Amino acid sequence: MKLWSGRFSKNTDKTVDDFNSSIRFDSRMVRQDIKGSMAHAEMLGKCNVISEEDARLIVNTLTEILDDIENDKVSFDPKAEDIHMYVEQMLIERIGDIGKKLHTGRSRNDQVALDIRLYLKDECRLIKNMIVGLMDTVLKTAKDHVKTIMPGYTHLQRAQPITFGHHMMAYFQMFQRDTERLDDCVKRMDQMPLGSGALAATTYPLDRYYVAQKLGFSDITRNSMDGVSDRDFVIELASVLSIFMMHISRMSEEIILWASKEFSFIELDDAYSTGSSIMPQKKNPDVAELARGKTGRMYGNLMTLLSVMKSLPLAYNKDMQEDKEAIFDSIDTVKMCIPAFTGMLSTMKVNKKNMLDATGAGFTNATDLADYLTVKGISFRNAHEITGKLVGYCVEKGLRIEELDLDVLKSFSVLIEEDIYEAIRPETCVNRRNIPGGPAYEAVMETIREAEQYLKKIHDY
């Protein structure tokens, strides 16, 4: 018999039971549900809403139930309505009518709101630690290649020389912002909603601050209707995870390109690649491709949550049950993606020669030639025109700028001297850009030191 069946004269149709049930996915919140119930029971006893003796019995029995669950002594009934009612039924089966006192001053509405906040806070901590592990790998790769010259791109066209270390540190900055977004998201879900009741709080003298303290919340929700109907924090987390996966997808796209024979900038480890069932020569970057593909799935979950919530009147509506599967899938997807992606990145081999050759072949030093002429006294616009004509000449002759004789270079501008060859060397081009945030060795090393300090604070914490 359902715990809410008193008002009803007949049983719920089986199809409705199946349609309504959420235990197949909300059972993952069982630990949070029990811990929330224990704090609620302690508070009821402290406030003399129920006797302290009954409160102790409820808490002790819930502790036993949790131990049994963690030791696989309890299996969830797939026919149960949800994890919240199932735990309460187990409690009543073990201690009888005293167990029925647990739900005093509480609704499933604020109970669910509590559980999802507790669960997401726990998951955010785990995901942040995983992202930090990825950042460790990105940072190590950057340090290993702080002098590895490669072409930087705009419009997927070779543009200017940079280093692979500088390129990797761009992703470090993205992932750092992702961790900060996670922290900000947790701040807004760190409010304890229990005590909101169904929508209009309760007549019992509950100590909401006591429960918040017991459960590790920094504050309580300030409006009972908002407390049970708010899912902003779920949508925000889905957005944060989508942005993180967008960064993963961008990096995946580059890895896929770099691993192709057309680029041959990197080679992926066999352990993080797959083959073809028909073409024996193939080595496919499936980890990067799957990560790129799963990003679309993350966007879909975000749109699901936004669509579910967009027209709901206050306060709670059953539609809001749909928030769980979407956000749980986003969490599961990210947690599955990061270890494989991190392993792929940490084991890939970098082909320094091919990167350097591509830097020279793409006239990536043309801007430095224009800058050279500008320093000699020519306006940048005129220097830009001269350099453009010189590049056009090189394209016609199938040569690089640095392969031209000095006399040929002088035919474009008499201001060009022997020092031009040093000025347009890739290493010179990179290291002359020695301003904060630039690709020069010293500038990149400074950002690496800052990154190390950032990670040290997190690891020490």
Explain what this protein looks like in three dimensions:
With 461 residues, the chain is mainly α. The chain folds into three domains: 17-104, Fumarase C, Chain B, domain 1 (Orthogonal Bundle), CATH 1.10.275; 115-146 and 171-195 and 219-351, Fumarase/aspartase (Central domain) (Fumarase C, Chain A, domain 2, Up-down Bundle), CATH 1.20.200.10; 358-460, Fumarase/aspartase (C-terminal domain) (Ribonucleotide Reductase Protein R1, domain 1), CATH 1.10.40. It is 62% helix and 5% strand. It has a two-stranded antiparallel ribbon with strand order 1-2. A hairpin with a 2-residue loop joins strand 1 (149-154) and strand 2.
Blueprint (SSEs and pairs):
Elements: H1 14-20, H2 23-26, H3 30-46, H4 52-70, H5 83-95, H6 108-144, E1 149-154, E2 157-163, H7 164-189, E3 191-192, H8 208-214, E4 219-220, H9 224-229, H10 232-259, E5 266-267, H11 286-309, H12 323-347, E6 349-350, H13 352-361, H14 366-375, H15 380-397, H16 406-410, H17 420-423, H18 426-431, H19 441-460
Parallel strand pairs: 3-4
Antiparallel strand pairs: 1-2, 5-6
Helix pairs in contact: 3-4, 3-6, 3-8, 4-5, 6-7, 6-12, 6-19, 7-10, 7-19, 10-11, 10-12, 11-12, 14-15
Would you summarize the structure shown here?
With 461 residues, the protein is mostly helical. It has 19 helices and six strands. The chain has three domains: 17-104, Fumarase C, Chain B, domain 1; 115-146 and 171-195 and 219-351, Up-down Bundle (Fumarase C, Chain A, domain 2), CATH 1.20.200; 358-460, Ribonucleotide Reductase Protein R1, domain 1, CATH 1.10.40.30.
